[in-house]
Design brief:
The protein is α/β, with parallel strands linked by helices and 332 residues long. Helices cover 42% and strands 17% of the residues. The protein has three domains: 6-49, Orthogonal Bundle (434 Repressor (Amino-terminal Domain)), CATH 1.10.260; 63-157 and 291-319, Response regulator (Rossmann fold, 3-Layer(aba) Sandwich), CATH 3.40.50; 159-289, 3-Layer(aba) Sandwich (Rossmann fold). It has helices at residues 6-13, 17-25, 32-45, 51-58, 74-89, 103-116, 159-172, 189-204, 211-214, 226-234, 245-257, 291-306; strands at residues 63-68, 93-98, 120-123, 139-142, 153-157, 178-183, 215-218, 239-242, 267-272, 285-289, 315-318, 320-323. The strands form two sheets. The chain has a six-stranded parallel β-sheet, sandwiched between helices. It has a six-stranded mixed β-sheet with strand order 7-6-8-9-10-12, with helices on both faces. Strand 1 (63-68), helix 5 and strand 2 form a beta-alpha-beta unit. Helix 1 crosses helix 2 (17-25), helix 5 crosses helix 12 (291-306) and helix 7 packs parallel to helix 8. The model has no long low-confidence stretch (mean pLDDT 90). Pfam families: LacI (PF00356), Peripla_BP_3 (PF13377). Residues 4-58 form the HTH lacI-type domain. One of its GO terms (molecular function) is transcription cis-regulatory region binding.
Length: 332
């Protein structure tokens, strides 16, 4: 069967080759009626664009790299999925790179993406101290704030406000000795800001902070062991803000096994608002991050960067929400 060309589409629709080209490339002026007729003809004829020729002509690959520290993490895998859908709808394919929080892999993937000729990169770094000064492509940073933002756009939830409100809710619901659960030796700007929000809430509500008591550290495997449970009992911890929901799940499981009643003996609130929070017992309270807004802001910003239509050096803060459930508020 003969391959359908733009000239064939022009004959079928009665429009000029130039008009067909404008509709296909979505640039220039044309009416919605014209667009509809051209798209109908494309669908009926099975016309397929020669993307290699288009890429060469426009000096673009229509591909974007996405770098994440842990694709198994709920927040990251949901974020990547939403970004991929938005990019696809804008005509871009994606190359997804998982760094396992390795600085070396992160640097290697950036070079690989540059060599593959992607048009831009969306980065969620697993490195606490990063600048990306050597990145030659347009790039967006999400969640982890770079040391130097002058060549990029930084997009993130308001982690400080999230930490503050999570802790405040524990206190408002009767907790006198709340603690925060964090992973030892895994720092990021997001976790540091959540911790800062935790401290500010303690200060505002005039509660004591003792780093040996008020911080519950987990190892990199994020396991809640008997020593941690003993620490909670020994120090009368009655509220727990976990740095993410996955850690909260593990605490709930271990505490129930250790005959704690939640929320009567200890209240728990997480961060991310995982889809499964409503299906565990008790249902987990959490800080909701608006992944739709984060992904939309990220894609919009990168596409504007590619068009040189945005001021670099900006930070975009996405508001969080508190979603209270049975792990803080006792079911009536």
């Amino acid at each position: 069967m003969k391959n359908v060309t733009i000239k064939d589409l022009a004959k079928i629709t009665g429009f000029s080759v130039a008009t067909i080209s404008r509709v296909i490339n979505n640039n220039g002026r044309f009416s919605e009626e014209t667009r509809g007729k051209v798209l109908d003809a494309i669908e009926k004829t099975g016309y397929q664009m020669n993307y290699s020729a288009k890429n060469l002509r426009m000096n673009k690959s229509f591909s974007i790299g996405i770098i994440v520290p842990d694709i198994s993490n709920y927040f990251f895998n949901q974020l990547v999925q939403k970004i991929e859908i938005l990019l696809f709808n804008n005509g871009y394919s994606t190359i997804i790179c998982n760094t396992d929080r390795s600085i070396e892999k992160e640097k290697s993937y950036i070079k690989t993406l540059e060599n593959k000729g992607v048009d831009g990169i969306i980065i969620v770094s697993g490195n606490q101290q990063f600048k990306f000064e050597d990145v030659k492509l347009p790039y967006i940073c999400i969640d982890r704030e770079p040391l130097n933002k002058k060549n990029t756009i930084f997009i993130s939830s308001d982690h400080f406000d999230g930490g503050y409100k999570a802790t405040s809710e524990l206190i408002k619901h009767g907790c006198k000795n709340p603690a925060i659960a964090m992973v030892k030796d895994r720092e990021s700007t997001s976790s540091n800001l959540r911790f800062a929000g935790f401290l500010k809430a303690l200060k505002d509500y005039e509660l004591d902070f003792n780093p040996n008591i008020s911080i519950v550290y987990l190892d990199k495997k994020e396991e809640v062991n008997d020593n941690i449970i003993n620490h909670l009992q020994k120090n009368n911890i009655d509220g727990l803000f976990t740095i993410n929901d996955f850690i909260a799940f593990k605490f709930i499981d271990k505490l129930k096994y250790s005959h704690f009643n939640i929320p009567e003996d200890i209240k728990i609130i997480g961060f991310d608002d995982n889809y499964f929070n409503k299906f565990i017992t008790p249902k987990l309270s959490s800080i909701y991050q608006d992944l739709d807004l984060i992904s939309q802001a990220s894609v919009d910003s990168l596409l504007k960067m590619l068009d040189k239509d945005i001021v670099l050096g900006q930070s975009i803060s996405i508001p969080i929400e508190v979603h209270l459930r049975e792990s803080v508020v006792k079911k009536i």
